[in-house]
Amino acid sequence: MKPPRLSPRIDSLPKAELHLHLEGSVQPSTARTLMARHGVKASEQEVLERYAFHDFPGFLETFKWLTSFLREPQDYALVASDLAERLLEQNVVYVEATLSVGVMLLRKQQPEANFEALLCATEPFERRGLCFRWVFDAVRQFGAAAAMEVVQAAKTCKSKGIVAFGIGGDELQVETAAFRPVYERAAELGLHRLIHAGEVGGPERIREAVQLLEVERIGHGIAAIKDRVLMDLLAERKIPLEICPQSNVRTGALARQFSREHVRIAEHPLPAFLRHGIPVVLSTDDPALFHTTLRDEYDAAKQMGLEDSELEQICEMGFQYAFGPASKRRTT
């Protein structure tokens, strides 16, 4: 059975995407180009097999493998240009792209040089109607000291295009409280604060992020469905959940939250969050790795039973809860 198609009205609306990892946007064909640049040979089938993981650990391994071919500023520029073209095709006019600066530092790269290349690569797309802003991202399992280095890199880069600091990676590693000084420093520098929480971890990770780190948006946050009091808190404080349905299904994160082996996209708690009054922004997470687009994510939301008026509300919230000048980019 084919999934329901979006109405022309919803499909044509300008959109913002707020949870998108640049490294996870690398298409298989681009991955082969990057590999060839660095003297690594691989067949198309070998690369496609890397993109066919079946669980969250498999996803992390693929992400690690893929980022190993992002070695020079020109590599980042190529990926950003490719991503920008794909976003424009979907009526995306504003994006907050997450950049794995923690991985750059681990690999002894210069974030300033890579970031300058990204700015140069994305500048032409501003004239075509696509505004890029950036989230500097640390890796949770690398620890608090490494995360502080990411905050310092954001300071060194000195760009109004860097709007936030976040932490991704394995949320089951390292206690949340360890990162409190890091988030305090990010706030001192004027950076907005994000974190991945409640993706594979429980609702307590979300509550800790809100209460200890004072984050302004939550990456994923699907575990909140298991805690009504937490849902009330998110709704009261208007803390958005960055929902990535295809990601949650394909990593097994949603099945884990439901303690089941498999779940269908229609079982996603997105409608429950929205109807509870929790702000929701819809995103792709790692679109190439999860074989999705923002259009596909809106289509998935429709499969969950959302009405067009609710889809339009979600679209509006993408601009409302952006950290950069997204509202200025919206046209009806």
Topology record:
Elements: H1 8-12, E1 15-21, H2 28-37, H3 44-50, H4 56-67, H5 73-88, E2 92-99, H6 101-106, H7 111-126, E3 131-139, H8 144-157, E4 162-168, H9 180-188, E5 192-197, H10 203-212, E6 217-220, H11 228-237, E7 241-243, H12 245-250, H13 253-257, H14 270-275, E8 280-282, H15 294-303, H16 308-320
Parallel strand pairs: 1-2, 2-3, 3-4, 4-5, 5-6, 6-7, 7-8
Helix pairs in contact: 5-7, 8-9
Task: Offer a quick outline of the entry.
The protein has 332 residues and is an alpha/beta fold.
Q: Give the SSE string.
A: HEHHHHEHHEHEHEHEHEHHHEHH
Count every beta strand, where a strand is a DSSP E run of 2 or more residues.
8
Question: Which term fits the overall shape?
Answer: globular
Overall mean pLDDT stands at 94
The first-to-last residue Cα distance is 32 Å
Strand order of the largest sheet: 1-2-3-4-5-6-7-8
Radius of gyration in whole Å, from Cα?
18 Å
| Major beta sheet summary | 8 strands, parallel
- Class derived from helix and strand content: alpha/beta
Proportion of residues in helical segments: 40-55%
